[in-house]
Design a protein that fits this description.
This protein is an alpha/beta fold. The chain contains 25 helices and 26 strands. A seven-stranded mixed sheet has the order 5-4-17-16-15-6-7. Strand 4 and strand 5 form a beta hairpin. The N and C termini lie far apart (56 Å). Bound molecules: ligand MGD (2 copies), iron/sulfur cluster and molybdenum atom. One ligand MGD binds next to helix 7 and helix 14. One ligand MGD binds next to helix 5 and helix 17.
């Protein structure tokens, strides 16, 4: 059988796979697809690992239901009956908001959740909607919403045509890009330098990306806002502002000038720890480049100053005329249309605003219909009307990805009902009452509905499943549709009719006649066909099916002012809310640096947050879950390489193994996330052999970016001391932080499927 093209969903790069399958349906080999429209043959080790992911015996193939405290394999009928028995009753008793939904980042790469979760939320009628977006990109949405009128209008580095890239808190050589879909960024960045361009990395850690850059500015965590203000100050005071074509539709330059007034590089030097001469030089060079781009990601968007930092990055692009110009920060035009990518044709957009609703417990901003994920625990453990009593997780591992795991663990254990749709019995789904599996990557179709919005070239690629759906497995969309049916009617019958209604509604919304929709299509394919027809290029599923390696739709092109959705179709460069919040950044100037150390995160090439650690090829080599400490600090604190350190924060503490390195600055420590595979009820056998520690025991759910409620993972204040003796790798999260929560009807103890260790008291 010839090798079949598919797409890797394991990061945002969306590389093309070529999958060779034996006659008996076993996967022989996976390699890079040389004809893929985006990746042209490139593949990282994770792409190859799609094969071992498919064959992993721990991967869930059957639903599981908790009976008598234990998760046991069940039939789909038993699983859905259990849900139909319990979910409506809970809604009846506590009201619609009592069921929450958390969508993880895997749900952003799978058509089922992408196209059907919204209908589940509608059917539940709940306001308690959470997702990984408020763990990583909400500041980006808010900045785009306020400046350009559309939270999903995202400027993306036009990397192949750029001469100068300043990267702030991003490590694309390892992450393969984020909100920048561009396979093999290492080569693209090398090519940029070969053609005479420059790369400047702003990062407290000497990352793999910094190693390949011309210059590395080692900023003190959380002070990028000051650094950016100083850069703007140089632009403005040295007459380097050049709006170019943007001049006709930008407002607010004066507001920026007043904000940056007096914030000179010399003044920020002490707090940012970046040398004033370097700041001035980099700004001058950047302003002189033919085309350049400032690009920021996780290190910019997950500190307590995330919105201001993300905003000032865009401001720098605008004031140098680099927004929306080739080689600068451009707006892709994906092959599909429809919300959330573009407004409905002819329907005026609702103005984006920060004055929306607030969450129940601590009045955090509810943006784009979602409560910040860092508020999930408090919404569960705080009694009152609207309290969350049930949770559905889809494609996420909140028990490891949300700040303050200890509190969240207790909260999850106090729920009356928990349902997880996932590939594994991970640290989250292991706590559920019903776990619903999904097909493997090779058994499902693929189209990057979100990430083609961030692609460095305009492309569209649809991959049908490589393998047939195994007997006894449902496609993920059907599973979500059944959950929606139960939420709406109490019964899970009628998936086809449900899907027909959904397609009809989408067709009406997008103005596509239903008889124009591909015959015989159902499920995500039918919805995708509608969205493609609603797009700029008038594509259909048939076009994509005829181009299995993807369709090239051309270079990124300038899209402003047409793509602006502000009421006056102008860029609002200096929204009052941002100017006000920026005063917190200005105040850093005179604030003392504070005690203790600052914790930052770290990603590894062979990881995807918390969930590839069950594949032996992904966890070979030296231990990776280490606390990186600078030599100077190690000496001062009496830490030794390979020894242990007790790390304490406002939220919790853990014991980690120490790695002494000059990768981090004195005063900074780094620990990766996604580890802590020590949940006894989980079933990730390989991962459990090297559990590592869960860094989110240290991060604090009370520490947020105030304008967005986005979680804070970087610049977390901790104290570090040497830890003697044979301590466990980690302090187990202690359940029952809050006294006297309602006991579950089916208690999780004793033991679940693992040994009894801890559970709700
Ligand atoms: N291999 C691999 N790839 C992945 C993932 C993975 O887990 N592994 N995860 C995927 C996901 S979900 C995402 S969102 C993307 C993330 O993609 P990136 O944002 O490119 O990845 P990070 O490694 O989180 O990079 C953040 C950088 O910010 C730095 N930093 C920390 N604090 C500060 C600060 O205060 N200021 C500045 N300037 N820098 C700071 C960190 O040292 C780090 O180098 O990666 C995706 N791709
Ligand atoms: N301290 C700290 N914490 C962080 C971060 C950090 O940098 N530092 N990064 C944050 C970021 S950027 C993000 S995006 C979040 C990610 O956090 P989450 O989205 O909560 O979690 P992941 O660890 O990516 O887990 C994804 C889950 O999806 C499952 N899965 C895989 N494929 C499918 C599928 O097709 N369908 C379904 N239903 N499930 C599937 C996997 O088995 C896995 O359990 O973590 C955040 N947490
Ligand atoms: S770079 Fe990302 S998309 Fe490409 S093979 Fe690796 S994990 Fe998959
Ligand atoms: Mo992310």
């Amino acid at each position: 059988m010839p090798a079949v093209p598919h797409t890797c969903p394991l990061c945002e790069a969306s590389c093309g796979l070529l999958v060779s399958v034996d006659d008996d349906g076993s996967v022989l080999e996976i390699r890079g697809d040389p004809d893929d429209v985006l990746s042209q043959g490139f593949l990282c080790p994770k792409g190859v690992a799609v094969k071992s992911l498919h064959t992993d015996p721990d991967r869930l193939r059957t639903p599981m239901v908790r009976w008598g405290g234990m998760l046991r394999e069940a039939t789909w009928t038993e699983a859905f009956d259990e849900i139909a028995h319990r979910l409506p009753a809970l809604q009846e008793r506590h009201g619609r908001d009592c069921i929450a939904v958390f969508s993880g980042v895997s749900a952003d790469h799978a058509l089922g959740p992408l196209l059907y979760t919204e209908s589940l939320i509608q059917a539940l009628g709940t306001r308690n909607v959470f997702s990984a977006a408020s763990l990583n990109s909400r500041p980006r949405h808010v900045v785009s919403g306020m400046l350009y009128g559309n939270p999903f209008t995202t400027p993306v580095p036009d990397i192949d045509r750029s001469d100068f890239v300043i990267m702030i808190g991003a490590n694309p050589v390892v992450s393969n890009g984020s909100m920048l879909t561009a396979p093999d960024l290492r080569s693209k960045l090398r090519a940029l330098r070969r053609r005479g361009g420059r790369i400047v990395v702003v990062d407290p850690r000497r990352t793999e990306s910094a190693d390949g850059a011309d210059e590395h500015l080692r900023v003190r965590p959380g002070t990028d806002g000051l650094l950016l203000l100083a850069m703007l100050n140089v632009l403005l005071t040295e007459g380097l502002v050049n709006l170019g074509d943007l001049a006709d539709f930008v407002d607010g330059v004066d507001g920026i000038a007043s904000l940056a007034e007096g914030i000179t590089p010399e003044r920020v030097e002490r707090r940012t720890e970046v040398d004033a001469g370097s700041i001035r030089r980099v700004v001058r060079e950047f302003a002189r480049a033919d085309a350049g781009v400032v690009y920021g990601r996780i290190g910019a968007s997950t500190t307590s100053f995330a919105t201001v930092t993300t905003w000032l990055i865009d401001v720098l692009n605008v004031l140098t005329g680099n927004l929306d110009r080739p080689g600068g920060a451009m707006f892709p035009q994906p092959g599909h249309g429809g919300l959330p990518n573009s407004p409905r044709k002819g329907v005026p957009p609702e103005p984006f605003t920060l004055d929306g609703p607030r969450s129940r417990v601590s009045r955090r901003p509810v943006l784009l219909g979602e409560v910040p994920a860092a508020a999930l625990a408090e919404e569960i453990d705080t009694p009152g009307f609207g309290q969350v009593r049930g949770l559905i997780t889809i494609g996420g591992n909140p028990a490891r990805s949300i700040p303050n795991s200890k509190r969240l663990y207790a909260a999850l254990n106090s729920l009356d009902l928990m349902i997880s749709v996932d590939t594994y019995l991970n640290e989250t789904s292991a706590l559920a009452d019903v776990v619903l599996p999904v097909p493997s990557i090779l058994e499902r179709s693929h189209y990057e509905l979100i990430h083609y919005n961030y692609a460095y070239r305009n492309v569209a690629k649809y991959s049908p499943p490589v393998l047939d759906l195994p007997i006894g497995m449902y496609p993920e969309w059907e599973t979500i549709a059944r959950l929606a049916l139960i939420a709406a009617n109490g019964s899970y019958e009628g998936v086809e009719e449900f899907d027909d209604r959904l397609a009809a509604a989408l067709a009406v919304r997008e103005g596509i006649p239903l008889d124009q929709v591909g015959e015989g299509l159902r499920g995500p394919e039918r919805l995708l066909d509608i969205l493609l027809q609603a797009g700029e290029y008038g594509l259909t599923m048939e076009h994509l099916q005829l181009s299995p390696n993807g369709l090239e739709l051309g270079d990124l092109e300038p899209r402003l002012p047409e793509a602006l959705l502000t009421e006056d179709r102008r860029i609002h460069l200096a929204p009052q809310e941002f100017l006000t919040d920026a005063q917190r950044v200005r105040a850093l100037l005179d604030a003392p640096a504070g005690e203790g150390m600052l914790l930052v995160g770290r990603r590894h090439l062979r990881s995807k947050n918390s969930w590839l650690h069950n594949l032996s090829a992904m966890v070979t080599g030296p231990r990776r879950c280490t606390l990186q400490v600078n030599e100077e600090d190690a000496y001062r604190l009496g830490l030794r390489n390979g020894g242990r350190a007790l790390v304490t924060s406002a939220a919790g503490r853990l014991v980690a193994s120490v790695e002494i390195t000059d990768e981090v600055l004195p005063g900074v420590v780094s620990l990766p996330h996604g580890w802590g595979h020590d949940e006894p009820q989980a079933r990730m056998t390989v991962a459990a052999e090297r559990p590592g520690v869960n860094v989110n025991l240290l991060t604090d759910d009370a520490d947020i970016d105030p304008l967005t409620g986005n979680a804070v993972f970087n610049g977390v204040r901790v104290t570090v001391v040497a830890h003697a003796g044979d301590a466990p790798d980690e302090e187990q999260p202690m359940p029952n932080r809050r006294q006297g929560f309602e006991r579950r009807r089916t208690p999780r103890g004793p033991g679940g499927i693992g040994p009894e260790s801890f559970g709700p008291a």
